[in-house]
Amino acid sequence: MARALRRLFLACIAGIALAATSAADAQVYMLQMPAVTANVGESFTIPVEGDWIEPVKGFQLSIQIPIDAPFAELSVSIDSSLVGQLEPDFAQFTIGTGSITGGVLLETIPPFQGTNLPSVGFPLLLAEIHGTIPAGASEGVFPIVFADGLGSPAVNNTFVVEFASVPPSLFLDGLVDVVIPPPPEIFIRGDVNSDGLVDLGDAIFHLNYTFAGGAAPVCLDAGDANDDGASDISDAIFLLSYLFDGGPTMNPPFPNSGIDYTPDAIDCATPPDLP
Questions:
Q1: Any idea where the domains of the chain sit in the sequence?
Q2: Rounded to whole angstroms, how far apart are CA atoms 141 and 274?
Q3: Which of 44, 85, 111, 170 stands 20 to 30 A from 261 (CA)?
Q4: Helix/strand/coil for 250
C-alpha cells in the first residue's frame, strides 16, 4: 500500500511539472530536475537541466537535500553535458550538509572567445548529481529542491548572461523515490514443474500447459529452456534433445539454481501466453 501511494504521489508530481511546462507561453529562464527511482544498495543519477532565452556564459546552482535522506557518496559531474564538452575554465561544486552548491563559468582566462551555452528552445543537461543508497536503507520519497541562499558564502540559482546574473523564473523541483528492490528470482532452467530435477517430466509438463490447458509453471522463465526469451514448443524440443539426443546443454541457471543473467522480456512472474 505504501509503495502504491508513493507511485501515485510521483504521478501527481509529474503531472504538475508537465502542466507547469505546458502553461508557459514562451521560453523562460528555467531549472528542472526529474523524479528518479533509486534502489537500496545501488547508485542513482539526478539530471539537472536548464532552459534560457539568451546565450549564457555560466550558471550557479543551489540545491537543498533533506538531511535525513539516505544518500551516500554524493558528487556532481558535468562530463556528460554540453557544458562539459565546452571545457569550462571554472567548474566547482560543494557537497554540504543538506545542500549542493556551485557554479560553472565557461571563460575566465584571456583570450576570451565568446564561448556561450546556446539557447536552443528546450532544456539542456547542465550537470548530474550522482550518489548511492546504502544497503539497509529504508524506503521513502525525498524532495530535491532548488533553494537560494545555501552554502557559505550563500549561493543563488542564477544564469550568467553577458555580465549580469539572471535568476530563473521557473523551477521544477525533483525527488528521489528510494525503494527496496524485490529479491532476485532463483530457479533452475528447464525445471518446468519445479520439482528440483530436469527430466522427461519437465518436457511433458511444458507440452501440457502449452497445448492442453494444463497448469502453468510456478516460474515461466524456467520453461525457457533454450533461453530465447519466450516459453513455447521450441523449449520442449530443446529439452528432449538435451535429455535424449545429445543436444546442447542449457544456459545458467543450470544445473544448479541461480539467477537468470540473460536480459529478456520473460521472468518468473510473466504470465504464460497460451494458445
A1: 2-179, 183-275
A2: 39
A3: 44
A4: coil
Q: Could you tell me if 107 and 20 are in contact, meaning their C-beta atoms sit under 8 angstroms apart?
A: no
CB atoms within 10 A of CB 232: 17
The domain defined by 2-179 carries CATH number 2.60.120.600: no
Nearby residues of 11 by Cβ (< 8 Å), 6 or more positions away: none
| Widest CA span in the chain | 79
φ, ψ of residue 174 to 5 degrees: the values are -110, -175
The CATH topology of domain 183-275 is: Type 1 dockerin domain (1.10.1330)
Q: Which three cell numbers stand for residue 74?
A: 554524493
What is the DSSP secondary structure assignment for residue 221, as one 8-state letter?
A: G
Q: Is the pTM of this model over 0.85?
A: no
Please count the other Cβ atoms lying within 10 Å of the Cβ belonging to residue 116: 18
Buried b (16+ CB within 10 A) or exposed e, 233-272: eebbbbbbebeeeeeeebebbbeeeeebeeeeebeeeeee
Angle at 84 between CA 82 and CA 89, to 5 degrees: 125
Extract the C-alpha cell encoding 183.
529479491
The residues facing 46 across adjacent strands are 129
For the segment 4-57, what is each residue's pLDDT rounded down to a tens digit? 444 444 444 444 444 444 433 457 899 999 999 999 999 999 999 999 999 999
